[in-house]
Amino acid sequence: MTRRGKLTTAEPLDSDGRESDGGGDEPESGPLRRCAVTRERLPKEQMIRFVIGPDRNLVPDLAARLPGRGIWLSARGDVIETACTRGVFAKAARGPVSVPPDLRAGLQAALSRRFADHLGLARRAGQAVAGFAKAREWLSSGRASLVVQAADGSAEERQRFLGSWDGPVVAPLDGERLGAVFGRDRAVHVAVAAGGLAEALRHEAERLAGLAEGTPGIQPECGPTMARNGARRRRTDSPPGVAGRNDVQDAGG
C-alpha cells in the first residue's frame, strides 16, 4: 500500500516549456510523476493529470494525453480537496485558474464512466463475461485475472461466487450500471481475462477508490474496493483500491 505523503502546497511549473513534475527542476520522464501537493513521486496510474485550457479553465486529463504542461495530483480525495482549498492549481500555473467547485465529484463521475467504457471494450473484445455461471466458469478454468462485482450486490452472493478465488476483486459500479455494459438490466458478477484492459480496469478502480475515501455516504463495500461478508480491510502490500482474497480479515476471526 502506498504510504501517504504530507500535504504541502505546490511550487510553480518549469518555465522552459517542459512539463512540470509538480514543482521540481527535473524534466518529466520515466513512469513516475511528482504530486503537486504531497511531493511524492508515484506511478502515473495512481495519479490524475490536469492541464490549463486557453480560457484558464482547469481541465482533468484522465488519459494523460492532452498537450500542454501538466499538473499531477495523487488520486486521493484529500489531495484533491487540498489542491482546491490552498490554491495549488493557480500557484502551479503561475496565474489565475478557474477550478470547478465540485471537482472531486466530477472526477469520480468521469472515472466511473471511464471504467464502464473500458469494461465495454473488454466485452466487445471477448475478454469479459457477465453472469454467475459464465463468469464462474472463467474463474474455475483460470482464464479470469480480475473479478468485477456490483457494489450493491449481496455480500453473501458475492462471497459464494468467489469461492476460493484469490485474485483481485473490484466493485466500482452498481448492478444497473454493470448490467448496462452487457446489455441487461442488471449484472452482479463479471470476469475479465488477463491483458491490457484488465490492467486498465484495475488502475481506474484504484483511482476511484482513492477519490472515494472519506466521501460522506460512501461505505467501503460500495466503493471500488470490496470487502466480503462483513470483512474489514487490514494493511497489506496489495495495490490500493483492489481487494484480494488474502487482503480481508473476517470479522470475529
Poorly predicted regions: 5-26, 216-253
* Number of continuous helical runs: 7
Largest sheet: 4 strands, mixed
Regarding CATH, which class of the largest domain?
Answer: Alpha Beta
Instruction: Provide the residue-averaged pLDDT.
Output: 80
Strand order in space, largest sheet:
6-9-7-8
Shape verdict: elongated
Q: Which homologous superfamily in CATH is the superfamily of the largest domain? A: Ribosomal protein L30/S12
Count all strands and give the number.
Answer: 11
Instruction: Give the number of domains.
Output: 2
Order of helices and strands: EEEEEHHHEHEHEHEHEE
User: How is the CATH topology of the largest domain named?
Assistant: 60s Ribosomal Protein L30, Chain: A
User: Strand fraction band?
Assistant: 15-25%
Helix content: 25-40%
Alpha carbon gap, first and last residue: 23 Å
Tell me the radius of gyration.
19 Å
Kindly describe this structure.
This protein is an alpha+beta fold and 253 residues long. It folds into two domains: 1-101, YlxR-like (Hypothetical Cytosolic Protein, Chain: A); 104-249, Ribosomal protein L30/S12 (60s Ribosomal Protein L30, Chain: A, 2-Layer Sandwich), CATH 3.30.1330.30. Helices cover 31% and strands 16% of the residues. It contains seven helices and eleven strands. Helix 3 packs antiparallel against helix 7. The protein is elongated. Residues 5-26 and 216-253 have low confidence and may be disordered.
